[in-house]
Amino acid sequence: MAQAYITVQVLLLLATVIPISCSYSMRASEVFVTRGSVAVLPCVISSSTQHPTAVIWKRIIEREERTVWRRDRSGLEFRAVGQAPQAHCPHPNFGSSDFSLHIQGTREEDSGMYRCEVEGQNIKNVMLHVVKVSFTPAEVFEGDRLTLTCSITPQPWTKTTKWELNGSPIASRSGIQTFTIDKVSQKDAGTWSCLIRNKQTEANASTSLQVKGILVPKDNSEVVYAQLGSSVTLPCIFSSELLFNSSSWNRVSKTSNLPAVLPSSFNISSNPRVSRCSSMRLVKSAYIESVQDGDEGTYRCSGEVEGGNGKRFEVERSIQLITTQVLSSNKNGKMTLTCRISSTSQVTDYEWVHVEYSVNDTQIFTSVQKSKSKVLSVPKEKHFGEWVCRFYNKQQLLGNATYQPHIMSGLEGKQQSTSTNKVALIIGMCFLVLLLVLILLQLYKNHHRRKMIFQYPAMETIVHLAANEREFRERVKEREKTQNGACGENPKSELV
After folding, report:
1. What is the DSSP string of 419-475?
2. Which of 5, 74, 94, 158 has its CA 20 to 30 A from that of 166?
3. What is the pTM of this model?
C-alpha cells in the first residue's frame, strides 16, 4: 500500500509539473528584431499597480538564469555589466502596468529566452530572435555572382521567409533564407528586405546593396527622344570608387556592328547642366548641341575600370537616340501635320495638343486628338498657333515634338525684311563712299593747283598781265574795224 501511495503521489506531482512547464512554453512570445536596432521585450500585466513593485528580468542560458536588469520597490535599478545586453525598462515601477525591457543595439549574442518576473504577477517568457541580412562578396561589381543570406538567431520552429527589393516582392521559393543571383546588374541594386512571418508575429530586416559599375543607365534598354534642332544629353555615369583605365563613346553603324561617324556637335561631358560635383559619381555623359536628321541610332559608352580590390573589368551601355519632328503640308488651303519619329517600336498612342497664348503670355493647352494616328488635319481657323505632338507607350509619356507656324512665318518675314534692309544699307554705303572719294579728289586737285601757283608768284603776274594786255589789244582792233566800216559807207552815199 505504501508503494502504491508513493507512486500515486509521484504521478500527481508529474501531472502538476508538466502542465506548468507547458503553460510556460505556451505563454512564451516570440520577438523578431533586426540586428543593431532596439528590441522591445513585452511584459504587460493586467492592471496597474497601486504601490511600488519589484521587477526582475532574467536571461536563460543553458538552463541557467542570469539577471539582466532589475528594480526594487525603492526604485533602485541594477544593471548587468560586461557582455550583457544594454537593457533597461523606461517605465516607472509605480502606477504602471508596462514593464517591457528595451535592449539597445541588439546583437546576435543577445538572442535567446528572457523571463519577466513582476512581484505578485505571473511569470512571462519572451524568445528574442535577431535577424540579419548580409551578402557576399562584400564588394559587388557588375557581373559578379551574388548571394544574399537572411540569418535568424536562434532559428524559430515555424516561419515563412520572403524577399523584397525596394518594396517589390521577389519570386523565390517560400522559406528559403538564401537568394542567389548568378550575374548581378544595376537593376539588383537597392534595399533588400527579408520578411519573416510566423503564427504570432512578423518582422523584416533590410540591407542596402550597391553594385559598382555604370550607375546610369542601369541597362541597355535606355531610349532618348530628341527633337531635330534641339540639344540632348546621353547619360553615362560611373561609380566614383572605380579607377578609370580608359573610357570612350562610339556610334554603332546601322548596317553592321562597326563604329560609325559621330555627329559634328557631339561632345563628352560638355553639358553645363550636368553636375560634376557629386562625390558619389563620375560623369562621362555625352552632349549633342544640335540634333540633326540622320543622328538617330545606337550610341555606346564603355570603359575599362578597376575596383578598390584591384579587380579589373569592362562595362558598357548602349543608348538608342530617336529623333522627332512635326512636318506640315498645305493643300487646297488645308494644313496637315504629321508626327515623324525615327523609330516607333515603343509608341502606341499619339496626342495632338493646341497651345494658345493669352494677353499675359499664359499658355492654354487644348487636347484636340488622341488616337493611334500620327496625322492631324488642322482646321482653317487654327492654322496659327503652336501644335504639340505627344507620344506614349502603354505606361507613360515618352516625349513630344513642337510645331510653331506663326513663329516660323514670322521668322521668314523677319529674314526677308532683314535681307532687304541689308541690300539697301550696302547700296547707300557704296554711294556715300563714292561721293566722299569724288569730294576728296576735287579737294586734292584744288590743293595741288594752289600749291603749284604759289611756287612762282612773279611769273604768274607777268603771264596774267600779258594776257590782259593781249585781250585789251584785241578789243581795240575790233573797235577800230567797226568805226572804219561805218565811215566808209557814209561818203559813198553822199556821192550818189
Report:
1. HHHHHHHHHHHHHHHHHHHHHHHHHHHHHHHHHHHTT-HHHHHHHHHHHHHHHHHHH
2. 158
3. 0.65
